[in-house]
Amino acid sequence: MTNAIDAPRFGVNYTPSKGWFHHWLDFDLDAVRADLDSIAGLGLDHLRVFPLWPLFQPNRTLIRPRAVEQLVALVDAAGERGLDVAVDGLQGHLSSFDFLPSWTATWHRRNIFTDPEVIEGQENYLRTLAGALAERPNFLGLTIGNEINQFSGDPHPDPDRITPEQAAAWLRRVLAACEQGAPGRLHLHAEYDAAWYQDDHPFTPAQAARIGAVTAVHSWVFNGTAQRYGAKSTASDQHAAYLVELSKAWAQDPHRPVWLQEVGAPAPHIAPEAAGEFTAATVAAALDCPDLWGVTWWCSHDVDRSLADFPELEYSLGLLTNDQQVKPAGRRLAGAVAEARSSFRKPLPRTTALVLDLPVDAPKRSTCAPGGAFFEAFMRLTADGARPTALLAEHAADQQHLTARGITEVVTVEDVDRS
Q1: How far is CA 354 from CA 86, 97, 362, 390, in A?
Q2: Coil/strand/helix, residue 57
Q3: HEC secondary structure over 152-181
Q4: Alpha-carbon distance 281 to 382, whole Å?
Q5: E strands along 336-416, which residues?
Q6: Which residues, other chains included, contact 221 with Cβ-Cβ below 8 Å and sequence gap of 6+?
Q7: Are the C-beta atoms of residues 195 and 167 closer than 8 Å to each other?
Q8: Residues 329, 299: contact at Cβ < 8 Å?
């Protein structure tokens, strides 16, 4: 089914200013309200929140009612401020830390993607969260978990290895549980960019672009983009837009919405004094992508430096400081949001398609990664003003497909290399 996009949404991934995601341990609704006031003050319309799975479901058959009540209270407080809320379920993985319940680890070590009892527990948990929020008008829907694909293979130190077929089966089962709990909401899954860039990764581009209500992409230029091409390069400024357009190669719906669910300005890859400029350039590039559902920045507040052992870049990703002061990236995002709302026009179709010669299951996809031939050809076209999109080779001669996407010119990597 095609979903019409009138205007993109603008939001933020909510990182509590007090206690980070450990705030669920001693939940303080007044502190949350202060954070939400500062988020609403940026002119944003939604946030993405992260229950910690082991705290909400400490035993396979125990989903803590008080924890669920606190999540509902947060969603209600957001609604009072005009903010919609998307909820992630299986947390899972956040900012380099893993949060798995004890019933999946050590003496109870079980594969979280294939063990029947673990999957049943996950289904019950996601169904419970969705059901608790189903009647809230500002509840957008559930994302299964944050970049949970990182548990499925390298470079994770202790992966739960699976096949692409097992990954797809797991996605469909747990998304069905979300739908059972809250029918008709925006339920989806979201992977970090291994799904698009890493050869033989079990979570695939086709799964991302075909399973769930929308396609989600997470754009981080510390993945080699900024290191290889520079912080102020076309590749860095356009990386998020590139992922949005890359995802469309595998979509069966020619106008499937794409959610830029995570993007941020990581230091030192993006210098603090350049964060505002990078933010504006990234948002402008994303808004030039047809069928963009929205942009959700990472993240709302800095990580308090009293908390130990985070990678250095995680401490300063916030649009706001821990004492609610707006940072340069926050000011630029607020300005970009205000401008987009006052003057947004749907972008024209991207008429030039760069052919991606991969099978639909794409076991070898490193050509799409920074340094890969497809990535570099796409960025050369972009630098020349072509506004490219991505097209699987199997569709290059399919006029019906091309017409549905508004494509009038098809070029290959070799064409770009010769030009």
Answers
A1: 33, 37, 16, 5
A2: coil
A3: HCCCCCCCCCCCHHHHHHHHHHHHHHHHHH
A4: 14
A5: 352-356, 388-392, 409-411
A6: 231, 236, 239, 266, 269, 270
A7: no
A8: no
Q: Which residues contact 290 (CB under 8 A, 6 or more apart)?
A: 5, 255, 346, 347, 348, 349, 350, 406
Strands 97-98, 388-392: pairing is unpaired
Domains delineated in the chain: 9-343 (3.20.20.80), 352-418 (no CATH)
CA distance 321 to 315: 10
The alpha helices in 273-324, defined as continuous H runs, are 275-287
Bridge partners (DSSP) listed for residue 190: 146
Phi, psi angles (nearest 5°) of residue 212: 100, 170
Structure tokens at 404: 């549905």
Q: Are 272 and 325 in contact (CB under 8 A)?
A: no
- Residue 129: name the closest of 189, 170, 87 by CA: 87
The amino acid sitting at 154 is D
**The pair of three-digit structure tokens given for residue 255, joined into one six-digit string:** 């106008």
Per-residue pLDDT of the chain (419 residues; tens, 9 = 90+): 344 567 899 999 999 999 999 999 999 999 999 999 999 999 999 999 999 999 999 999 999 999 999 999 999 999 999 999 999 999 989 999 999 999 999 999 999 999 999 999 999 999 999 999 999 999 999 999 999 999 999 999 999 999 999 999 999 999 999 999 999 999 999 999 999 999 999 999 999 999 999 999 999 999 999 999 999 999 999 999 999 999 999 999 999 999 999 999 999 999 999 999 999 999 999 999 999 999 999 999 999 999 999 999 999 999 999 999 999 999 999 999 999 999 889 999 999 999 999 988 889 999 999 999 999 999 999 999 999 999 999 999 999 999 999 999 999 999 998 87
Residue 206 phi, psi (nearest 5): -65, -40
What is the total residue count of the chain? 419
Which element (helix H / strand E) includes 75?
Answer: helix 65-80
Tokens (6 digits) for 87: 């909820």
C-alpha to C-alpha distance for 349 and 40, rounded to whole angstroms:
32
What is the amino acid identity at position 153?
G
